[in-house]
Amino acid sequence: AFTVDVAYSRLGEARVAPGMSQPSYMGLVGAYDQGPLHLAVSHAETKNSADLGGGVGNKDSATTIGGLYNFGGKVIVGALYEKAKSDQLVGDTQRDYFRVSVMVPVAKHEFHVNLGVVDDRLDVNMADAGAKQYTLAYNYNVSKEFKLYAFYTVVDNEDNGNYGFKTNAAGVDNKSFAVGARYNF
């Protein structure tokens, strides 16, 4: 029921800037998957993939804890929390991110509600730089492989938040409505 995955890579002899060490990536995931309970803890780290200025390389990291519980196929609840850190030329930035989702399947129908909250940006240190994201969704399972879906998403940025999909301008909220079909081969 318990697995561990580890990944490490270096980009050959490539350097982002002269004098910097080679870029490297490391990831570690521990997962527990037994019956209705699914849990995972992960840590990822990236070094020297960007020049912060003057040949100073970045060091970004994130630790995530997530889980899902299936209440007998009547309600499925998932949640995750992530703490991320990113080096900047002067100091560092930190961000806390939380997400909760609920799915209620009824026969061939699925009803979804999703909420995500982030408290800051990782690219700059400034106040009022968080955002909230809300999604309502509906799926109709035509067959095991074929699904029709519709969803509505809102990203509500604080004054300096730049999260979204239409623009990354600070303070701009984003809204989206989608319909479509998905087929799993």
Alpha-beta classification: mainly beta
Number of helices: 0
Question: Largest sheet, described in full?
Answer: 10 strands, antiparallel
- In which range does the helix fraction lie? under 10%
Low-confidence blocks of residues: none
Order of helices and strands: EEEEEEEEEE
Can you count the beta strands? 10
Measure the end-to-end span.
27 Å
Radius of gyration: 20 Å
Shape: globular
Strand content: over 45%
Strand order of the largest sheet: 1-2-3-4-5-6-7-8-9-10
Average pLDDT taken over every residue:
93
Labels describing this entry:
single chain; ten-stranded antiparallel sheet; 10 strands; mainly beta; 185 residues
Task: Provide a descriptive summary of the structure in words.
The chain is an all-beta fold and 185 residues long. Helix content is 0%, strand content 65%. The chain has no helices and ten strands. It has a ten-stranded antiparallel sheet, with no helix packed on it. Strand 3 and strand 4 form a beta hairpin.
